[in-house]
Every structure is written in structure tokens, then in C-alpha cells.
Amino acid sequence: MTEISSRMVDTTSKRVGRIAGGLLGLLMALIIMASTSQAFAHAALIQTDPSDGAVLAQAPKQFSLTFSEPVSPLVLTLVKPDGTPVALTSFRLTNQALEIDNPQALKSGTHVLSWRVISADGHPVGGSLLFSIGAPSEPPAVSEMVDWPSRSAIWIGKVFLYIGLFLGVGGAFALAWLAGNGRAGQRFVMAAILCGLVAAPLSLGFQGLDALGAPLPHLAQPVIWRTGLGTSFGWTVLVALISLGLGLLSLAGPRVLARPLALAGLLAVGVALAASGHASAAEPQWLTRPLVFVHGIGIAFWAGALVPLGLALKRQTAGAVAFLRRFSCAILPVVAVLAAAGIVLAVIQVQTPSALAGNAYGRLLLIKLALLVFLFTLAAVNRWKLTASAEAGATEVQRRLTRSIAVEMLIVLAIFGVAAGWRFTPPPRALAIAAAQPVSVHIHALEAMADLSITPGHAGPVAASMIIMTGDFGPLDAKEVTLVLSKPDSGIEPLKRAATKPGDGSWRVDNLVIPVPGRWMVRIDILVSDFKIVKIEAPVDIGP
């Protein structure tokens, strides 16, 4: 009966291995799909002055960009109608607003304000807006092509950094705390740590390239490295290098210091991962950062022990059975904490089940969950079907357990690939925050002006708020205000809604429905007196 059970387990392991191999191919396809997504925003641009597409009578003295969260500017450029770029170096940060000085008088025609900033999660965000002075002209070309060499380098660097932290530092911890006097897998662990020591600084350079939008050949420029170090990912790299160094010292240093050094290295893995990234930047950070810390330590403990344990069983070393027994006793609470932290982080990032299939982040999460199901299933089979016999000294079962551990290792590497792919995909949480932000436009005419805000700034039920003033920024006591929205290119006739004045100085229109996204023409009819109506209008972009 035991032999039949062992054969069934062996067959299951082989099937899981074949499926995991197929999932690797699917994983690469999804990484490419995620990388080509157009929704790269982490911090969302919610208001600009001038507004995108505005036609101004004269050049503005300054430009203003307001984001959904605080940002740090990286590259600010004004492209003139003839294609000449002008670097914008004078700016001020006020909470979530970036105010940029216009350094020179601008001639008539269409200009492009191109911006690139770094968001709180350490990821760069870029975009551009068009405005015209006098009359529109043919806009200068601004390239937004994906730099595949740089993007591939970022992904590969992330994967190898994970190998260094999880397999290297985690492996060093397993050798110090679980393997006893056994040294099986030490060369592999040292090689993984060396991979991490190379990948960590390179990843910092790749971060600088991505932040500045520079091509891969510019990697040697000092500004690239300064920029990368200035992002939150710089802290991740610095702590990761400390963690890798501690792991290496635990292997090469005095045996009496191996355990404390390995433990310190494992804790530093959690600190490094909690220093930057989507999950760490999510609110509430008092919860998300500790969860990322715990999640990282759990992954390193589990993944790091696989290769040393598998090699110890394969070689049938003296301490292999004791190693297996210690790992088997410790892994259950570790996996429980790891799974709990992962579930909470996933709920915070995704928020609703419908978001799983609606964007690249969710689709990658589904692939990761599928891989985890295979991994947990295989680990359960190992724990409850093979471990007891292997601990009893059954040589054939130990060999099968070794092969099963090898399959686990393959799945773990695939999970690393998925996690690295998240670098290019904003989570549904960030997209939801961006979608909930209002869209604002400033409408200015000689007789009157208005600041209009539509919340949220996407199609569906919205509310509009307007502050009405005279053309010279003075108070305007309007008798009535009517909001008119139209979209002629979609055949939508004007939607007219009378505004109310709740008492805070603004005019409001509630229970308004904007049926489709796109560029709408908004007009505000202001009844100044019984005999005079002032009409001002401007375009406004409504998101999907």
C-alpha cells in the first residue's frame, strides 16, 4: 500500500512539474502583456493649469500640475512649436501641487509640457499636456514608445535580486539554523548571494534609467545613479546590500557568529522589501509595511531552505533527516503567517474581486495564485505523505522528496517572475484612487471666469462644483448659473443643469450623469442681471 501511495505521489509530482513548466511560458506572455498596458500611473495627475488643449491669449507665467499624492519632479520639459525642448528647472512643491516657472516669453502656436515625476511608491510617472497661445498649430512630436531593453533589464534585475534575497540570504539562514553541521547547498547559496550583490546595484541604475526615461546605454552616467538612489527604491537597495552581506558573512565567517548574522540578514530582507513598492506605499502604512516585512521573511525562510534541504536528502548526508525534521516542524506556522499576510495585502491592493481580471495587475495576481495553489498542494503532499517515511530513513522516499522539492523550486522561480512583473503595473487600489479624483478646468473670459471641478473625473454619476468670479478675479454675485455639457462628435446634445448655491460661495450641480468618456465641451451660463447673460466655455476630458 505504501508503494502504491508513493507511486501516486511521484506521478503527481511529475504532472505538477509539467504544468509548472507550461505556466512559465504563460507567465512570460503575461509579463509582456502587463508591460504594454497604457495605465502606468501610480500617482494620478488630477488637475493642470493650463488645462490640456487650452487656447490662451498670452503665455502663462507659470504651469501647475496637481497629483493625487505627493511627488518629486525628475524631468520637466517645455517643447516649443518648432520642436525645440526647454528644460524647466525652477519649480516649487506645495503638498500635492507642482508649480513650475515659465522661463521665457512664448510665441504663438501649440506647446507641449512634458513631465516625469517619482511617486511615493518609488515608481516613475510621466505624461504631457498640450496648450496653445493665440491659435493652435501642428503639435511637436513627443515620443512615448516603450523602451524594451531598459524594461527587460529592470525585470531581470528584480528577479535576480529576489534570488539573492530569498534563495541566498534565506538559504544562509537555513544552513545556520536548520541544517545543523550540514553544508549541503552552501555553494548554491553563496552563488545566489553573489547574484544578489550584482543585481542590487544594477537594479538601482536601472531604476535611475526608468525614472529619467533614459535609454540603457546611459547607464554609466552619474546622474542616473544619483536619481535611482534618490527614490524610495534606493533604500531597498541599500538595505538589501546589508542583508546580502550579512548572509555572506554567516557562511564565510566564524561559525559562532553564523546564527546571529544569518538572523540579522533574514530580518534585513523584510526591511528591504518594506522600504518601497506598491504594497508598502498603500494605506494604512502602519499595517502594510509590517505585513510586507513579515511576508518577505516568510518567503525567504521557505524558499531559502529548499535547495539546501533537497541536496542534503539527495546526498543522504548525516544530518539530512534532522534538517528535514526541523524544517517540517517550522514550516507550518511560517506558511500560515505568510499566507495571512499575503491575503491581507492582496485585499488592500485589489479591493474588489471584479478588479482581478480587469487589469494587468489583477491578471498577474491570478497567475501567482495559481502557482501558489500548485506550490501549497505539492508542499502539503510532501509534508503529510513523504516526510514521515523520509524521516524514518526510507531511501527511495527521500529521492522522491528531493524531486518534489526541485519542482517546488521551479514554481518559486516562476513566482519571482510574476512579482517582478508587478513593477510595471499599477494595482487596482491606485487606479481606483486615480479614478475617484476630480477633473478640474479653469475657464477665463473678459467678463467672467470660473473654476469648475467634476467629481469623480470619469463617466457615470458625478457632481460639479463651480466658483464664479469676474474677469479680473473679483467677486461675482450671479443670479443664476447653468452648467451645459455637450459632445458633438458622439452625437450627444447639450445636457443643461441648473446649479444651486449651498452657502459656501460655490455653485453645485448634483445628480449629474456623464454617459461616455472623452473630451466634452463645457459651458457655464451666468445670469449677471435680469438683462445680461455671460457664457464661458472650455473643453474638459472625462476618463473612462
Automatic annotation (TrEMBL):
<dbReference type="InterPro" id="IPR014755">
    <property type="entry name" value="Cu-Rt/internalin_Ig-like"/>
</dbReference>
<keyword id="KW-1133">Transmembrane helix</keyword>
<keyword id="KW-0812">Transmembrane</keyword>
<keyword id="KW-0732">Signal</keyword>
<keyword id="KW-0472">Membrane</keyword>
<keyword id="KW-0479">Metal-binding</keyword>
<feature type="transmembrane region" description="Helical">
    <location>
        <begin position="291"/>
        <end position="311"/>
    </location>
</feature>
<feature type="transmembrane region" description="Helical">
    <location>
        <begin position="188"/>
        <end position="209"/>
    </location>
</feature>
<dbReference type="Pfam" id="PF05425">
    <property type="entry name" value="CopD"/>
</dbReference>
<feature type="transmembrane region" description="Helical">
    <location>
        <begin position="323"/>
        <end position="348"/>
    </location>
</feature>
<feature type="transmembrane region" description="Helical">
    <location>
        <begin position="401"/>
        <end position="422"/>
    </location>
</feature>
<dbReference type="InterPro" id="IPR032694">
    <property type="entry name" value="CopC/D"/>
</dbReference>
<feature type="transmembrane region" description="Helical">
    <location>
        <begin position="159"/>
        <end position="179"/>
    </location>
</feature>
<dbReference type="InterPro" id="IPR007348">
    <property type="entry name" value="CopC_dom"/>
</dbReference>
<dbReference type="Pfam" id="PF04234">
    <property type="entry name" value="CopC"/>
</dbReference>
<feature type="transmembrane region" description="Helical">
    <location>
        <begin position="261"/>
        <end position="279"/>
    </location>
</feature>
<dbReference type="InterPro" id="IPR008457">
    <property type="entry name" value="Cu-R_CopD_dom"/>
</dbReference>
<feature type="transmembrane region" description="Helical">
    <location>
        <begin position="360"/>
        <end position="381"/>
    </location>
</feature>
<keyword id="KW-1003">Cell membrane</keyword>
<feature type="transmembrane region" description="Helical">
    <location>
        <begin position="229"/>
        <end position="249"/>
    </location>
</feature>
<feature type="domain" description="CopC">
    <location>
        <begin position="42"/>
        <end position="133"/>
    </location>
</feature>
<dbReference type="InterPro" id="IPR014756">
    <property type="entry name" value="Ig_E-set"/>
</dbReference>
<feature type="domain" description="Copper resistance protein D">
    <location>
        <begin position="322"/>
        <end position="422"/>
    </location>
</feature>
<keyword id="KW-0186">Copper</keyword>
<protein>
    <submittedName>
        <fullName>Copper resistance CopC/CopD family protein</fullName>
    </submittedName>
</protein>
